[in-house]
Structure formats: C-alpha cells, structure tokens
Amino acid sequence: MKDEVKEHRMSCIVNLLDFYHTINRQEMYIRYLHKLHDLHMECDNFTEAGYTLILYAKLLNWSDEQLPPMLHNNKYPEAITHRELKEYLYYDIISCFDKGKMWEKGIELCKELTQLYEKELFDYVSLSKTHKRLAELFDNIMRQMRPEPEYFRVGYYGYGFPSFLQNKAFIYRGKEYERLVDFNARMQILFPNAELMKTLDPPTHEIKESPRQHLQINAVSPIMELKEPFKNKQVGEQILKYYMVNEVQKFTYSRKSDESPNDVTKMWLERTNLVTSYPLPGIVGWYPVVSMSTFAVSPLESAIETLENKNKKILSTIEQHRLDPNLRVDPLGMLLNGVVDPAVNGGISMYKVFYNGEYLLHSECQHDSELVEKLKQLTLQQVTLLRDALMIHRRKAPENLKPFHTHMEQRFAEMCNIIEREYGIKVADKGFASASLRRNQSLPNTAIGRTSDYYTSTSSSSSSDINSLTPNKYPSGHRTQSVWVRPDKTSVSPGKTSLQSKMGNIIKRASAVADSITDNRTSLEQPIELSEQLVTRRPPRPESDKNSRPVSNQFRGDNLSTSSLSLASNTTATSDTSDAFSSDEPPPLPEKSAYADYTNTVDVDPQSLPRRPSATPSIKNKPQPPLPEADRPPPVPKKPH
C-alpha cells in the first residue's frame, strides 16, 4: 500500500475515532487505535505512533485491577493488570518518542515511572534503569542535532474532494527536511487532479461551489507559547528550540499589500493568525483550522519584526558555535555576509527613512516614536551580535577563508560608519581591537608609555577620581615631586594604616605624574626665557680674604663621602663662616684627614707637617709573632720503602 493511500486511511480512522469516542464505544475505539498505530509505524511516523499509544495508555490506571477482555493486548499477553499493561505501553511510547527525537515527551513519561518505582512499588532496580534512560534523554537534548519541521497551510476548496475535506483548511506538519516545494509535490501526488491556486486571496464563491478540486498551499510559522516553568527565566536556546516548533496550536502567515511596493513607508502587511483543533504534533500530522483572524501590520512594525527575527537567528548561531566548537563555520559566514554585505537596497538600509525625524513629523500614529526608539535599540543589538559572530568566525575560519573574513570586517566597519553618519546612532565600538588596546587608546597621547603600569590598569571609576582631583590639587606653577616620599611618622599613628590611606597615596602619586606630564608638555610648547639677573644674598668677601684662601681643590680627599656630612656639622660650619665674615681674620683651615693628598703643594715637607693621632693603631706593617716551640707539630714520618 502506498503512503498516499495510507494517509487517506489515517484521515478516515481519525474520523472514526472521534465518532466512537463520542458514542462511548470503547472496544471499537481501542481497535482503531491499534490500526492507526500500525499505519504510523509502517510509514516511520514514530512521533504520531507514540501519541496514539498515549490515548491507549490513558484508558488504564496504576492499579492491580484485572484487565477486562476488551483492554487485553495481544503484544503483551503476560500483562494481566492495569499497571502491568500501562508499564509496558510506557516503555513502547518512550521508544517511539526517542526515535522521533521528541525527547521532552519521553522525559515526562520517565518521570512518571520514577515516581511509581520510588513511592509505590519500591522497585529500586527498575528505578535505576529508568534514571539512566532519563539521563540519556536529557543528554540527547543538549548534544544531538534534530531538524526543525516546517508547517504548511492547505485549503481544500470545491466539491471534488472527500466530504471531510471540502472547503476546509488544515495545518500540516512537514516531515524531516521537507520544504514547501517538496510538500507541494507530495500533495499533488495525493490529489493528482487538483488545481494549485497561485495566490493567497480568499477563494471566491464560484471556487467553493465548483465540482473541481482547488488546492491553496502556503507555509506558516508556529507561534510558541512559553511554558509556565520558563517564564521570567534565562533558558538556553537548545531547550527552547523544541517548544518553538512542537506542542504548538497557533500559526501565522503574512502577505504584502499592493498599495505601493516601492515605498517602504507604505509597505503594509496583511497578517493572518490560525488556530487548530489540537496541538501539533499529535495522533496525525495535520489538524483542521477552527478559527482565523486577519489584521494589518504597519511598515514600521514590519521593520522591527524583521530585525528581531534576524537578531534571533544570529544569536542562535552564536550559541550553537559556543556549545559545539567543532561546528562548521561556512553557514555562519554566509549568514554574516548576508547582513554586513546585503544585496542592493537590502539590510537595514531599507529602513533608513524610519531613523530620521522627518518620518515622525509626518506620522499619524501616536506610538511611532516608541517604535522608532525600539528600532534603534534593535539596530545597536544587531551590531553587538555581528561583532561577536565575526570574532567567532575569525577564530574558526581556515586559511582559505581569511580574505573572505577580512572583507566582512571591512564591510562591518563601513556599516557602523553609515549607522553613525546617516542614522544618528552612536556605535560604541566599530573595530575588533583587544580590550587593553582600546583602553590605551582612550588615554591621552602623552600619558601612553609614561605612567606606571598600575595607573594604566586602573578602573574607570578610579580614573575619574584622579581626574577630578588633579585640577584643584596643585597650582599651575607648582613643581611636583618625581618620587614618592615617606610621610612623617609623627602624623600617622603606627599600626592604623587603612586601605583608604593607601588609595589616597596612590591617587596622589598618579596625580603628581599626571601634573608633571602636563607641565613638561607645556614647557615644551611654550619656552620660558629667563631675563632676571642672579644676585647672591650673601655679601661678597673683600679681596684680601679671597687671596688668602687656598685653591679649591688643594686639599681634596679621596675617601670623603657625602654621607659623612650631617645636618649638625653643616649648621655649625654655616654659623662659623658667618662669624668669620664679621672679623678681619680669615677663617681657620679645616682639619686634614689621615691620607690627604699633598702632591700639589709647593715647598712643603710632608714629614714636617703634624699628623693627627689616630684612635685605632695601624697594624699594616707589623710582623707576625713567632709560634711557640711547644705548639709546633711533630714532623711527618717518612713512608717505608
């Protein structure tokens, strides 16, 4: 039997199931449930087969009650109670959902079994096996890739179709990797005499009353209803993907109006929302549409939705590459190239008119200002996502894609410039420089390479504090110290140095460095000319005193050091010098050291000069005392021959 004929049989069986369920014919209801399950297994519809068995399992309860004859299952003859048969059915359902990659539904059943084994049966062996299976299902969600099915709306118009299809619309769930072209071909094989409608206009009365077959097929998008446990929480993209295309009952599609296709501000959309009788997927891959509503979407709202969808796509791709480092980079490159280098009049340039103020002046809608602000925020968000995605592409791109990546980075920089220049949106970062490079670029030119490493790496808050203190801390003509001086110990109590005082010292040092840099730059730009004559404050000595003084380097000592000159000696010498100037006699000569150099004197005998007695006796030329006779060691005996 062909699959097309099997689908016709499935539709008929579903109608029979509704009928037998309505009249409460449980035996016939169970019989056709088995037939529908077998048809799904023959067509490899594992998801629909699992949902069919769930209807069978709902007729049973978790008790040891004996099964009535109509509930017996020939596949499990050993099951004689409700609990035993329901347990077997749950294992089959979990297996079907696993094959259909509906792991979330399998997790629900596994959790129900764990409660049974832990709280009712105390079967820890089965509990352990169920937990292992549960772990595998969770692992599949995060690690395995599964295709996202597409959904299609099919309208059957005319009396040429079977009675349960005439002038009705259905939502179909496509098979794995089935696109609109493939689905159209499948429906035309199922109804070879049907005529495919070319537009989405509502069918006329003549078409509905026609004896012929008219098919109207178009793709629809599912509307996800966020589950209660996920609301107001951060949920991973890999988890939400399932609920975007599964367990959905509302769908939507849009089409453009024919008012002005060339003017963006007049490109209104006609949107249609559809609601099915049951959520998809279910016991079959299609359900009838029970309600439909149509409304208009403004051009500005359409632009916002377009940017939102593109941002979601980029964010989803980024998350995929972060979760799987081995993922191919080609799809990411094609996605980015379509945004940073779109076709003619593509990308955000299509909505250029919405960014300026002229559109709001001529707008009649009161909420357009809020929508324009939202559009700008989405534009900035897209720039951020593009930068992150380009960084991933740079890191993972092979050598043959390096020129392509360089081209995308150039286009991205041009895109940022256009956004700032023409759209009036400030872009924080247009390039791909590292954080340290961007931080150094933000400093003044004279500060780069001159300030300390600590000052360069301080946070923005510390930098603002330093900048606020710098203008008021030092006057413009004050010369700052180039080294840090230890504060006076008398001003700070020992053992009470706090973190605030340490930070204050750091701020002072940084401010001093900044001021010195500023002073150096000012001195280089405006040279200062010294015109004041230097005059000594001490009165000059008479000529007789100058002639009686020896040559300045006459008594130069080789071993003198600056450390031997203390503050007290300097003070004494200063006072003595002042007293000497008041008298006519020259000041006395300083005492000579032990090893002064007298080679530059004339007619002076060094032996006749008095030597200052030394406190420590010199032992340089003294001979060593002889060893006592008793302490001499005995001679070493000779070795025997």
Quote the CATH topology of the domain at 3-143. Serine Threonine Protein Phosphatase 5, Tetratricopeptide repeat
Give the overall silhouette.
flat
Sheet/helix structural class: alpha+beta
CATH architecture annotation of the domain at 3-143: Alpha Horseshoe
Report the C-alpha radius of gyration, rounded: 48 Å
Mean pLDDT across all amino acids: 76
- Report the count of strand segments: 7
Pfam families: DHR-2_Lobe_A, DHR-2_Lobe_B, DHR-2_Lobe_C
Region (Disordered): 444-503, 518-641
InterPro entries: DOCK (IPR026791), DOCK_C_lobe_A (IPR043161), DOCK_C_lobe_C (IPR043162), DOCKER_dom (IPR027357), DOCKER_Lobe_A (IPR046769), DOCKER_Lobe_B (IPR046770), DOCKER_Lobe_C (IPR046773)
Biased composition (Low complexity): 451-465, 560-584
Describe this structure in words.
The chain has 641 residues and is α+β, with helices and mostly antiparallel strands. Among the domains are: 3-143, DOCK DHR2 domain, lobe A (Serine Threonine Protein Phosphatase 5, Tetratricopeptide repeat, Alpha Horseshoe), CATH 1.25.40.410; 151-225 and 237-297, no CATH class; 311-432, Methane Monooxygenase Hydroxylase, Chain G, domain 1. 46% of the residues lie in helices and 9% in strands. It is built from 20 helices and 7 strands. The protein has helices spanning 3-22, 26-42, 46-57, 82-99, 103-121, 124-143, 180-190, 205-208, 237-245, 299-323, 330-340, 357-362, 368-396, 402-423, 435-442, 453-456, 460-473, 499-525, 543-548, 567-582; strands at residues 151-157, 168-173, 195-196, 214-223, 248-256, 269-280, 286-297. A 6-stranded antiparallel beta barrel has the order 1-2-7-6-5-4. α4 packs antiparallel against α5 (103-121) and α11 crosses α13 (368-396). The longest helix has 29 residues, at 368-396.
